[in-house]
From TrEMBL:
<dbReference type="Pfam" id="PF22124">
    <property type="entry name" value="Glyco_hydro_95_cat"/>
</dbReference>
<dbReference type="InterPro" id="IPR016518">
    <property type="entry name" value="Alpha-L-fucosidase"/>
</dbReference>
<dbReference type="InterPro" id="IPR012341">
    <property type="entry name" value="6hp_glycosidase-like_sf"/>
</dbReference>
<keyword id="KW-0378">Hydrolase</keyword>
<dbReference type="InterPro" id="IPR013780">
    <property type="entry name" value="Glyco_hydro_b"/>
</dbReference>
<dbReference type="GO" id="GO:0016787">
    <property type="term" value="F:hydrolase activity"/>
</dbReference>
<feature type="domain" description="Glycosyl hydrolase family 95 N-terminal">
    <location>
        <begin position="3"/>
        <end position="252"/>
    </location>
</feature>
<feature type="domain" description="Alpha fucosidase A-like C-terminal">
    <location>
        <begin position="696"/>
        <end position="790"/>
    </location>
</feature>
<feature type="domain" description="Glycosyl hydrolase family 95 catalytic">
    <location>
        <begin position="279"/>
        <end position="694"/>
    </location>
</feature>
<dbReference type="InterPro" id="IPR027414">
    <property type="entry name" value="GH95_N_dom"/>
</dbReference>
<dbReference type="Pfam" id="PF21307">
    <property type="entry name" value="Glyco_hydro_95_C"/>
</dbReference>
<dbReference type="InterPro" id="IPR008928">
    <property type="entry name" value="6-hairpin_glycosidase_sf"/>
</dbReference>
<protein>
    <submittedName>
        <fullName>Glycoside hydrolase family 95 protein</fullName>
    </submittedName>
</protein>
<dbReference type="Pfam" id="PF14498">
    <property type="entry name" value="Glyco_hyd_65N_2"/>
</dbReference>
<dbReference type="InterPro" id="IPR054363">
    <property type="entry name" value="GH95_cat"/>
</dbReference>
<dbReference type="InterPro" id="IPR049053">
    <property type="entry name" value="AFCA-like_C"/>
</dbReference>
Length: 793
């Protein structure tokens, strides 16, 4: 469970990430010039919330619908540009901590690592007879980044620590601290928007943009230190602990940033002083006690590693890839590590790059991209036993819904709430595109609320927390339903449809050869609305409320335009059987009903299930990093373990930082997912996909080893979660289940699907009776807190 290397990082995608949900750093590990690139999760461009809604959208809606109904799709595309709002803001880097050492000499025995079992990045090397070691971690309990530097000989540490930033800033100092204060841009255009002055700063004293401070404190063993405008200078020490804290003027999604740097500085100094009152050992132990509770819940073993000897991670990727089961285990747990590091209670949700970004104009603004990427970030949260890490997204959805109510009313004249393709820290809910610059193929997509509500329901499905469902989840889901009920309208056949409707980022080709984006009733729209209605019907039933609305939802669900099978035997992506602009397109939006949805299963919808599989075959096994991860989850739902492993092989290919082939995919040397460039969703999607290979519970039963590949004949997993608040551990040999343990948190009926013909079930040494529901499926009753052991006979 360690990423390790024999040289320092030369590029950002070779550096190693640490984080505590709020603070993040990329550690480079240079012996002579250590570099930590720093982030804080509320540091964004912008001047606070603005009214991004477009009243004109409501005025042109009927025109766009008329053009679509008349089959004038290219004209509808053009007209729909009038429905857009401004681009949203961008996630910003904070700055850099640089340590310049004065030990000189020839470096020997160098090693750099990130241990996932303790979330500590390490650097070790020798100069002469003196060994130097560094340990670096981001503490959630103390909300600081801790850098421990040790030498094996007294007086051997001499270095200077400096802070800088890509933003306008100044550095200053007190007797105990070095600090940097700066301002963010008032506006940043997306990196794909080519125009003059894409980054705009205000005057430092009067700007309404975000202000921030980074601050360093020091603890010494031996030696001395001095602080001045040039930095923090360490002389003749044996060990040094540096603590870094940061604070911004963010006051909430619905408020402008605070204008006074003084209150930012006071909060930051207080946090740092509290951490400084602890010894390194106390800081380290508090970090371990917090982190290991989360990380140690799940353990995965997939058999012997192909790499017999320890191999540096970059070489391991290049030489072995998915043939190395140990590398697959490492990448699986890395996804869990990254979620713990980028999404904790009180933090913002993980964005397109988690919390790690070095660019003033980051790829795709490093925002929350809501047509797949943000959702994929959290597919693993429940199944991989990190439910607490789901909470930042659930809170963000609440805030987004508050803004989305106004967008629904102003832009569309609808009840409820709506959101679109992109979100930022100010919870922009209107379609982006700078009032016509954007392409409706991605900008005009009012379905993210429906998809985000899946996460609200899934959190309940896995935790069975009825209070959460009643007080937080269902009210938001209900409002999203109201929008969809108003947005849907009947077609000539009496089916309910959406219009305008897009299949995110993928265009169709009409019979006369025109490419267009907007049409009506795309399969993804219908699937998302079916999912929202189904979950909301179930939620209102659990809560025993809203019976009239429940009946209305059920009636609307029955009238949704049904899915269709095209002339290639594929599940149609659009309501008309058009050709794809790109048959190998990275998005597979029309397959939502397979995964992460639950609408299509082999048992309940066999023809559509097969058509969806045919669609995935047509898409092929290439794609961007996150697209490969989505396909892993899809092939797992199709119960094809060998095909799933083939996708894992495609993902586990080494990508260099300067590679920009969007359809290449793969991972960088530090195992970050490569779109390319870096996007973290592929890391999270991969981990979720591996979990789906081993345990599935979306169809009202717990399916054990549904997609086990032949190459993993022996293995075990402990601590995965299933819907119904069940924990699942299992082991297998010869490609067949040996034993499974089901822990029932709240009790209730449990249905298990296996490929084994005969099973025994016992609890506390006593046989438990079960009924055979159908071939391969058994059912038994459970009691709260009990563990049930299933064995193959």
């Amino acid at each position: 469970m360690k990423l390790h290397y024999l040289s320092c990082a030369k590029t950002w995608t070779e550096a190693l990430p640490i984080g505590n949900g709020r603070l993040g750093a990329m550690v480079f590990g240079d012996p002579e010039a250590e570099h930590l690139q720093l982030n804080e999760d509320t540091l964004w461009s912008g001047r606070g919330p603005v009214d991004e809604n477009n009243p004109n959208a409501k005025n042109v809606l009927s025109d766009v619908r008329g053009l679509i109904a008349a089959g004038r799709y290219a004209e509808a595309d053009k007209k729909s540009k009038e429905m857009m709002g401004p681009y949203n803001q961008s996630y910003m880097p904070l700055g850099d901590l640089r340590l310049k050492f004065r030990h000189g000499g020839v470096v020997q025995a160098y090693e750099r690592s990130l241990d996932l079992t303790d979330a500590i990045a390490r650097v070790a090397y020798r100069i002469g007879d003196i060994t130097y070691k560094r340990e670096m971690f981001a503490s959630y309990p103390d909300q600081v980044i801790v850098i421990r530097i040790e030498a094996s000989a007294p007086g051997a540490l001499d270095f200077t620590a400096r802070l800088d930033s890509p933003h306008p800033y100044r550095t200053s100092f007190t007797a105990d601290h070095l600090y940097l204060q700066g301002i963010c841009p008032e506006h940043v255009d997306p990196n794909y928007y080519d125009r003059d002055h894409p980054v705009v700063y205000g005057e430092p004293e009067t700007t309404e943009a975000m202000r921030f401070e980074g601050r360093i404190g020091v603890q010494l063993e031996g030696g001395a230190y001095a602080i001045d405008h040039d930095g923090l200078h360490i002389q003749s020490a044996k060990s040094v602990t540096l603590l870094f804290s940061a604070e911004t003027s963010f006051q909430g999604y619905d408020k402008p940033p605070a204008k006074e740097i003084g209150q930012v500085a006071a909060a930051n100094e207080d946090r740092l002083q509290r951490a400084m009152a602890k010894s390194y050992e106390q800081l380290r132990q508090a970090h371990l006690d917090d982190y290991t509770v989360l990380f140690n819940r799940v353990d995965l073993k997939l058999g012997a590693s192909e790499a017999a000897e320890p191999v540096p991670t970059d070489r391991r990727i290049a030489e072995y890839g998915a043939k190395d089961a140990g590398l697959v285990e490492l990448l699986f747990q890395y996804g869990r590590y990254l979620l713990i590091a980028s999404s904790r209670a009180g933090s913002q949700p993980a964005n397109l790059q988690g919390i790690w970004n070095k660019e003033l104009r980051p790829p795709w603004s490093s925002n929350w991209t809501l047509n797949i990427n943000t959702q994929m970030n959290y597919w693993l949260a429940e199944t991989c036993h990190l439910s607490e890490c789901h909470e930042p997204l659930l809170g963000y959805i609440q805030n987004l819904s508050n803004n989305g109510r106004k967008t629904a009313e102003v832009n569309y004249g609808c009840r409820g709430w709506v959101a679109h393709h992109n979100g930022d820290i100010w919870c922009q809910s209107a379609p982006v595109g700078d009032y016509g610059h954007g392409d409706p193929v991605w900008a005009l997509w009012p379905m993210s609320a429906a998809w985000l509500c899946q996460h609200l329901w899934e959190h309940y499905a896995f935790t069975q927390d009825e209070r959460y469902l009643r007080e937080q989840a269902y009210p938001i889901m209900r409002e999203a339903v109201l929008f969809c009920l108003d947005w849907l309208h009947p077609d000539d056949n009496g089916h309910l449809i959406t219009s305008p409707s897009t299949s995110p980022e993928h265009k169709f080709v009409t019979a006369d050869g025109q490419k267009a984006a907007v049409s009506q009733a795309t399969t993804m729209d219908m699937s998302l609305i079916w999912d929202l209605l189904t979950s909301s019907i179930e939620a209102s039933g659990v809560l025993n409320m809203d019976e009239p609305l429940r009946a209305e939802m059920a009636a609307a669900r029955e009238k949704l335009r049904p899915m269709r099978i095209g002339n290639h035997g594929q599940l149609q992506e659009w309501s008309v059987d058009w050709d794809d602009e790109d048959v190998h397109h990275r998005h597979v939006s029309h397959l939502f009903g397979i995964y992460p949805g639950r609408q299509l299963t082999e048992l309940t919808t066999p023809e559509l299930f097969q058509a969806a599989r045919n669609s995935l075959e047509r898409r092929g096994d290439g794609g961007t990093g996150w697209s490969l991860a989505w396909k892993i989850g899809l092939w797992a739902r199709f119960q094809d373990g060998n095909r799933t492993l083939a996708l894992i092989s495609n993902l586990l290919q080494l990508v260099k930082e300067d590679e920009t082939n969007y359809h290449h995919g793969g991972v960088y040397a530090n195992l970050f997912d490569a779109h390319p460039p870096f996007q973290i969703d592929g890391n999270f999607g991969f981990t979720a996909g591996v979990a789906e290979m081993l345990v599935q519970s979306h169809a009202g039963e717990i399916s054990l080893l549904p997609a086990l590949p032949d190459a993993w004949p022996v293995g075990s997993v402990r601590g995965l979660r299933a819907r119904g608040a069940m924990s699942v551990s299992l082991s297998w040999a010869g490609g067949a289940l040996q034993e499974a343990e089901i822990e029932a948190q709240f009790g209730g009926s449990c249905r298990i699907r296996t490929k084994e013909s005969s099973l025994s079930v016992e609890s506390e040494g006593t046989n438990v009776p079960y009924e055979v529901v159908m071939e391969g499926v058994i059912r038994f009753d459970t009691e709260a807190g009990n563990i049930y052991t299933l064995r193959s006979l």
